[in-house]
Structure prediction request, 408 residues.
Amino acid sequence: MNLSYFIARRYLFSKKSHNAINVISIISVCGIAIATAAIIIVLSGFNGFGGIVEGMFNSFDPDLKITPKSGKVFDYHTPEFDKALRVKGIQVISESLEENALYKYDDRQMPVLVKGVSEEFRLVTDMNKLMVDGRFRLTEDVINYTTLGSGLAMTLGARAGFINPIKIYAPKRDVNINLANPTAAFTPAEIMIGGVFTLNQPDVDEQMAIIPIGLARELFRYNNEVSSLDIKLNSDASVKKVKSEIEKILGADFFVENRFEQQKESYRMLQIEKWVSFLILSLILLIAVFNIVGSLTMLIVEKKEDIKSLKNMGADNRLISRIFLYEGWLIAFFGIISGLIVGLLICWLQQNFGLLRLSSTPGAYIVDAYPIIIMFWDVVLVFMIVSSISLLAVYYTINNLKKKLNVL
Prediction:
């Protein structure tokens, strides 16, 4: 057995003459363990919330979305699009046309973002998962239906199944407003309320209304134009590969965005919050790690006579330094492993039993308990960061010891 490690282990577990050293060593282990566990729990918590957001976006956003780089709409009935939409891996294509309009229900009115979609939209998305009232439908028999964002429905005071229709006023394109008769600048229509959905995104929930694309083209005076093409891929298709092939065919005039790129601001904000929290907890960890410095320093003072005895028996400065180096490593190791075990155990308990709940009222939020998702690479990163900080603190102490050994 390595002599330095053997002595270091004996020093760690043996009773010291000064009880304060034992207490400081225990505090060092506990400090590192608590900080490590906290980082694991916080990162897993952010992963959990990110998973919920991603799941909701995945229910609404298509695998790929084609939009023009200039202008609001485009006609995709061209040879280039015919070729691009035949790329292997594409399963369903849905048309989408977005424009601003005014919704009026009884005595309430609200400017909205009207999203006209084709029937394939229900195949591209999973709207049933997002519905909170009624059901998603576009046209039944000769009746058109609109699906409202939850915030918009609340503002209008409208719900699925209400008998009175919503009145739509769509501004006419390329028509000057006649101040004597301003209503002539709008195309009116009526539509029934099919359902209410929520994405937990204010810009969608409070502003968006989904209608059939045929009605949208009639209101906004378009023929075959669309604002975007929403694409669903086969389950075994590579999003990256299909995206690259479509971009190559369409050239530089169109964006081809995957789900991350469609919601990049939301995803980026989640990641920023996650890693800022990680940085703050790492600073707290840094403070906890310096308990090792105090523990080692006091141990070196207590073992001054042992150090002289070892030197008299032929031990060189390198061997003595390694004893306390291993001592610091052992304290850090026990703290890191204990913290990882405690953190992962708490995450597992939260995942399976929901110990910490968002509300005492079931169904008040999307989930009743704080969501947790443990990611392997987060655990690896935490282990590496905590280990690195701990080792730096130990090396700092050992370097000071080396300067003093020559005078002992």
Summary: The chain has 14 helices and eleven strands. The chain has a mean pLDDT of 85. The longest helix spans residues 19-60. The CA atoms of residues 39 and 281 lie 6 Å apart.
